[in-house]
Design a protein that fits this description.
This protein is mostly helical. The chain has 14 helices and 6 strands. It is about 45% helix and about 10% strand. The protein has a two-stranded antiparallel sheet with strand order 1-2. A two-stranded antiparallel ribbon has the order 3-4. The chain is elongated.
Length: about 350
């Protein structure tokens, strides 16, 4: 019986060595499997890694979508590369030619898949929503819902029923899968950053800033030549001072296209000027309830630094050049034969 313990120990050691050999063999096979592209298993697409996701969670998602052949092999590869806890949160594009090693490197690099979106100056909330929808960034309805969310607006310090006017027109690089709320936050923060470049804005209350933004949004849809924006702003300020109706054609267009959901008109008729809507500045004096577009820096600066003038009227005289004739009397202004409208989008 004295040799029994030695035989048991030898048998145990043999089993352990066999297990290690089997694990090594499986590991080599798994690493080889992980290195191969998952062609024919699902092709390329988009994978999102949430903050705090483990390599196991990510591997399971990749395998479920057919981006890799084996979740086990991917986990083993991540461990072998020392990247098990280094996967970066974000949204990534996975190509059908990529093997698990390339996918792993991509997720560890943090180089997210981005959509380039250029929002033109003067676009309205609904136009921006349609643009984002067309480019596959986010659904139109989801963006509109986010931009009119009372809780999100309160978070962003917007004392209005929507973010209209605060969605700064610019070129954005947005991660695929970015939520509508995150996009609204990004655009509003861009507005805050740019308007802070105007020193006078810091001393304004939220209501005062909102009023400046309303006027800037009207100037945005009225001017064609940037040099004339401060002069157009002065016309509206002069009208406000004498309690004259702003009589902006752009606000009538806003009523027609955004409030009544009708096609953009080429000409404004007398019947349009009589539309009973608070945004119609022919029918109601003072500023409309909110911005009618999302203005760029030219219009914002014009609203803060209007040209000194006594003009009360302006009319387009050269549609191609975008130049206006400015006047102080109604008689001179009535020489106009038609009303031209700045069309955006």
């Amino acid at each position: 019986m004295k040799g029994a313990p030695h035989r048991i120990m030898a048998r145990t050691l043999g089993i352990a060595l066999a297990a290690l050999a089997l694990a090594a063999a499986l590991g080599s096979a798994a690493l080889a499997l992980a290195a191969a592209p998952a062609e024919g298993i699902g092709g390329g697409g988009i994978i999102t890694v949430e903050k705090g996701d483990s390599a196991q969670t990510v591997a399971a998602a990749l395998a479920r979508k057919g981006f890799i052949r084996s979740a086990f092999a991917f986990r083993l590869l991540a461990r072998a590369e020392g990247l098990g806890s280094s996967l970066r949160a974000g949204t990534y594009r996975v190509g059908p030619e990529m093997g698990a090693r390339q996918i792993l490197d991509e997720l560890a690099s943090g180089k997210q898949a981005l959509s380039r979106v250029t929002v033109p100056e003067g676009y309205t909330l609904s136009q921006i929503a349609s643009l984002l929808d067309r480019q596959g960034v986010v659904a139109k309805d989801a963006f509109v819902q986010a931009a009119t969310s009372s809780s999100l607006l309160a978070e962003l310090g917007i004392l209005a029923p929507s973010a209209e006017g605060y969605l700064f027109p610019d070129t954005y690089f947005l991660p695929l899968g970015y939520s509508a709320e995150s996009i609204v936050r990004t655009m509003v923060r861009a507005f805050r950053a740019r308007v802070s470049e105007i020193p006078e804005s810091a001393a304004l209350s939220p209501k005062e800033l909102h009023d400046r933004l309303i006027l800037a949004s009207i100037v945005e849809r009225e001017y064609k030549s940037p040099d004339e924006a401060p002069l157009i702003a002065s016309v509206f300020y002069n009208r406000l001072k004498i309690r004259m109706a702003l009589q902006s054609c752009a606000t009538v267009v806003y009523v027609i296209t955004e409030r009544l959901d009708r096609p953009h008109p080429d000409v404004i008729y007398d019947r349009d000027l009589k539309l009973d809507d608070p945004y119609n500045t022919y029918a109601h004096r003072g500023l409309p309830p909110g911005p009618i577009s999302n203005p760029g820096m030219t219009s914002l600066r014009a609203a803060f630094y209007p040209e000194g003038s006594r003009f009360l009227y302006f009319r387009l005289i050269d549609p191609e050049a975008g130049t206006h004739h400015f006047s102080t009397t109604l008689e001179e202004h009535l020489d106009a034969r038609a009303l031209f409208i700045k069309k955006v989008g």
